[in-house]
UniProtKB/TrEMBL annotation, chain A:
Species assigned in the record: Hibiscus syriacus (Rose of Sharon)
Region (Disordered) residue spans: 12-35
Entry-linked PANTHER family: DNA POLYMERASE DELTA SUBUNIT 4
GO BP terms in the entry: DNA synthesis involved in DNA repair; DNA-templated DNA replication
Gene Ontology MF, one: DNA-directed DNA polymerase activity
Xref: Pfam families: DNA_pol_delta_4
GO cellular component: delta DNA polymerase complex
Classification via InterPro entries: DNA_pol_delta_4 (IPR007218)
Name of this protein: DNA polymerase delta subunit 4
Taxonomic superkingdom: Eukaryota
Residue ranges, compositional bias (Basic and acidic residues): 22-35
Automatic annotation (TrEMBL), chain B:
Keyword annotations of the record: DNA replication, DNA-directed DNA polymerase, Nucleotidyltransferase, Nucleus, Transferase
Main EC class the enzyme belongs to: transferase
EC number in record: 2.7.7.7
Keyword match ATP-binding: no
Catalytic activity entry: DNA(n) + a 2'-deoxyribonucleoside 5'-triphosphate = DNA(n+1) + diphosphate
Organism: Hibiscus syriacus (Rose of Sharon)
Name this polypeptide is given: DNA polymerase delta small subunit
Domain DNA polymerase alpha/delta/epsilon subunit B: 182-391
GO molecular function: DNA binding; DNA-directed DNA polymerase activity
Quaternary organization: Heterodimer with subunits of 125 kDa and 50 kDa.
Top-level taxonomic group: Eukaryota
Localization, UniProt: Nucleus
Amino acid sequence: MATTSRNIKVFYKQKKNTTTSTEKKSTKNPSHKDAAATFGSDVTQATALASHGGSLDLKDDFDEEEKVLAQFDMNMAYGPCLGISRLARWERAQRMGLNPPEEIESLLKGGKVRLECLFEGRV
Amino acid sequence: MEVESPEQLQRKQTTYLSFGENFEIQKEVYRGQQYSQIYFARLHWMRALLYSLVPNWKSHLPVCTILGLEEGTECIIVGTLYKHMKLKPCILDEYSKERSVAPLVKPHNFMNQDDYLVLEDESGRVKLGGTVLSPSVYVTGVVVALHGKETSAGVFFVEDVLEAGLPPQIERPLKSREDKYVVLVSGLSIGSSSSNPLQFQLLVDHITGHLGDEEEQGLVAEIVHLVIAGNSVEISRGILSGQNLASKDQSRLSEPFKELDIQLTQIAASLPLDIMPGSSDPANFSLPQQPLNRCLFPGSATFNTFRSCTNPHCFELDNIRFLGTSGQNIDDLTKYSEAKDKLDFLERTLRWRHLAPTAPNTLGCYPFTDRDPFLIDSCPDVYFVGNQEKYGTRLVKGSEGQSVRLISIPRFCETGVAVLLNMRNLECHALTFGTQFSS
């Protein structure tokens, strides 16, 4: 069932021309990197109230690595992404024999990216 | 002056292996996950299994996902069943604006003729039609493969069903064994108004060899193990009202445990015993229930023959595999499906290869993320369920030569019946204790 392709570009949809604006990064809520189960509603309010310059987009930062990881989160073959950290989900997919791409593991262990899934803290 | 009998009867011994690590949750860490993870693990494991069985069933048909269904094309789909039930109690009913005349007394069984089944996988869900798949037999959470085609109404018309069937069984060496017996009992309910202490004392005296003549004691010496399948104590609801207990009520809370511990000490001094928690015992509510704490049994826990076990419980005695629960899984099936006999439910769970398919939908369950511990991957030789209304037993044969003894253990406080199983040939019969004196 899972795409066994090692080529990460398979996950990509058409790329839009996005202007990477640094002010968007500053509105990113700093509590994202903290402990996992944030049930606090203040997080969702902060992201909703912050202006995104017109285009409301699920991804609030636009760097390439985050896009790749978001695609990994969205891929149904590895199961639901909520409630489990990205690395734990990757390891579970590995144990189940689904052959998740190894780039994801190295990105997650590299440390500059969000360890929790796209929707963590928002739903 | 008593005359010592010249020879001491020795009780027979067995080797014991526990497979309870699967059901323990000490290592689990809760991270706020929901139940989608356990359903994913269940679907993944069962789907891989069903895909391997489909070629032997109907090799000429294509297998597709639910989103990939095309109208009119015959194919095979695999997914988790969901049963939509009108009468199933919903928490939202309490908040609904229209206060319809809801019955105050909940029915025992929530089935209705309008119930329908839906098949779901990660890509989508499809309503199921046709008469082959009966909503009265199946429940939410069972993973099956279906052969059929999608109709123009968007409903998948089912022509045939493939269940996983009995799991593979490890061959037991058929050397001629000697008679060794296991006693299974459940529903002692010490502390309830219906329990008779004399009846339980009779059971204890019988098993420990204090009753009967030498011939009787010789038979009893062949009993090698005792399994108590849940509901050993019952605390009256009146005490557990949330108020602080007066000192006289505190003793009422601990009395049942003291009495149970005294009896278990007598038993543990004589033979190995396993005690499982049940729905009325002080263990966690959701399955898998964790072993009862050893501090509840200050006298008996000092013996190494005393074992506090999980519910469900899986163990091996002399290479015979036992698997069983204290009854919550079968009781839940009784509420959401129907069968002529409780043993039918037991057999169905074995054929579905899942101990508790309704967990976590209607049966409390821990939200595991990477596995579903209730999946049965190796066929047991003895499969029991405790706390049922009456004693029943059946031998089930599988398509690959598996053979399982199903046992329904009745509640001891109501019936006075324990079950005696002979490990040599897996035959069992009831052991009834009565304290009525006929006039």
